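Appendix B, example 12.
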Amino acid sequence: MHVLFIHPNFPSQFFPIAAHLARLPGWQATLLTSVDTSNLKLPFNHAAYHLKEGPLPKVFYNPETLAGLLEHLPAVYYGLKRAPQLRPDLVVGHVSYGTWLYLRNLYDCPFVGYYEILPPPFWSDGLALRKEFPPPESVRLFNATFHSLTYLHLHAMDAGYTPTNYQLGTAPPELRYKLRVIFDGVDTNLFQSRRPRPTEFRGLSIGPETRVVTFVSRGLESIRGFDIFMKAARIIEKQVPNTLFLIAGMERTNYGHELHHIGNQSFKQWVLSQDTYDPARYRFLDLIPTGDLVTMLNLSDVHFYLTVPYVLSWSLINAMACECTIVGSATAPVLEAIDDGVHGLLTDFYDVEGLADRAIRVLRDPESQRHLGKNARDRVLERYEGARCNQQMVEFFQGLIDQHKQKK
């Protein structure tokens, strides 16, 4: 069985399942993307489509216009039309981009949509992911048409999947019957607790009396509560003086609208300019390799995870798998993964003092809360473990292929 995955970004959500299929007898996976992967040694086939002449980009940025999204449709279609030797048994693509919509004209096979999210209506208050940083007029108008491809793919697909029930709840009610909830999966053999904890990390010596607070986000941005975390960190810094803050993430806004309000600077720069912080206590690590992320999470006495109602980050599940004691926001995506007081400690997204207080109590006696981390890992093994999720995905794909063959 040959599965063709299409996503303009790389590695995207398809990397884990593509790698898994490539290891299974009788299965083959190809990942088509718009960025340059030619120098990467990957366990599956991979290729790129060109939006324009010249070298492929190294990094994908979301198009800022509907026209930019639509450019992907013919690029994918004509690129694959020139490769008649590629005959997939199943096509899987992200429904928010111009991935496989035209391909129904090329292939007689099932088409699967990866559904991520639909925002509230563009004219409503719900489009403001953070009330302090509302979307300007231009963003609202763009959102009026931005998800046109999402609706078109949802109608055209044979079936689809989405990682969480929260995300399923944002899909149009009349089309939810096409979607299944299957999480992307986390490697719990890699992400696991290792005791005793490391004593060195990226040139830092971590003594037994040092308390470590961790924060991980692909971008240090408003919807992931970077500013809320830093306000809580400042309270912690004053009350628990032996605390070290390790912060991993790019100085980049991927979602949200804060950059329209803070001038010509990054959100990180803006947040740090709002108060004074002891630079000796904070380490900003940018993006770090996966091995370093595992080490960092194993150093953690408290791991902060904050988000507005939005897509749940893999970083939370990684931290849970490493038995971190989570202090997080009591928002819908987090509440789906964590029961307050059982798998972590949750409070209101904007409750800086409440978040800080919960973290301080843990930092003063980390061992008293270790059971939360153990329960969190049990939750991951029950719901989000990679082998389990991959098996669900394979059965889902196989069922669609079998149904299609029976109809022929």
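Residues 164 and 181 are 6 Å apart (CA to CA). DSSP finds 14 helices and 15 strands in the chain.
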